[in-house]
């Protein structure tokens, strides 16, 4: 029986030798360990390592693991309504949200997204509560994990013709109808979309209360910000890439100084011509 024990010890010895012994290597692994699974895996590697640097690193990872658990619980709350819909028989739940209702320039943009039952989107929240860098990261993950996603918009000319309320609803309907997979339930931030032709539910502050709507808000915001950067290059001097068309003091001063561009909403008072002229010509997007 001594031979099997020797063999087992040999395997154990090899396994231990394969473990990183350099604190530098351990710290590098800790730097990239962000999800709960990878954090716990690294903690297992550190278990029993009595070096002071290793124990400090383990304490940091323990706190990170606690944050990961708290974030997982928060995400579970964000998707609580969707889970109820799944239990009621729904299979494909879409969230839809818009951005760009308030700006003086540029289109209003909406996004729709259908996420799988199991999602891993740490940090997901209403786009207004997430930094630009985090929105970009989240948008990549949302697109990668989704069953389907789509962006719709209403142009400046449509905003001026319909008014911003109806133009936003038009953008939202276009986003939902652009999905390659048809949802059997649509969750909408704060309103109902006319002529949608699908079951829908309006949620006040839905982009904060529901993860699917929050994911849509992230996609819409990232798309519109990129679009405004392109419009800034086409119509320099207004700072569109900085304020995204919103009515900052610098933006209003530029409109007074230069006059409204073709991508400014003439139905919005600061952009109206002195004669109260109609819509500007539609800009190429």
If you had to describe this structure to a student in words, what would you say it looks like?
The protein is α/β, with parallel strands linked by helices and 285 residues long. The protein folds into 2 domains: 14-77; 80-221, Ribonuclease H-like superfamily/Ribonuclease H (Nucleotidyltransferase, domain 5). It is built from 12 helices and 5 strands. The protein has helices at residues 2-18, 23-32, 36-46, 52-78, 80-87, 132-145, 156-162, 164-177, 206-209, 211-234, 240-243, 249-258, and strands at 93-99, 108-114, 148-154, 185-189, 200-203. Strands 3-2-1-4-5 form a 5-stranded mixed sheet. α6 (132-145) packs across α10 and α7 (156-162) packs across α8. The longest helix has 27 residues, at 52-78. It is flat and about 75 Å long. Residues 1-17 and 275-285 have low confidence and may be disordered.
Task: Output the keywords.
single chain, 2 domains, Nucleotidyltransferase, domain 5, flat, 285 residues, five-stranded mixed beta sheet, 12 helices, alpha/beta, 5 strands, disordered N terminus, 53% helix
DSSP helix count?
A: 12
Strand order of the largest sheet: 3-2-1-4-5
Unreliable residue runs:
1-17, 275-285
Question: How many β-strand runs?
Answer: 5
Supply the CATH superfamily name of the largest domain. Ribonuclease H-like superfamily/Ribonuclease H
Helix fraction by DSSP (H/I, runs of at least 4): 40-55%
Structural class: alpha/beta
What is the level 1 CATH name of the largest domain?
Alpha Beta
CATH topology of the largest domain: Nucleotidyltransferase, domain 5
Q: Approximately what portion of the residues adopt beta-strand conformation?
A: 5-15%
Number of domains: 2
- In angstroms, what is the radius of gyration? 25 Å
Globular, elongated, flat, extended or rod-shaped: what is the shape? flat
* Largest pleated sheet: 5 strands, mixed
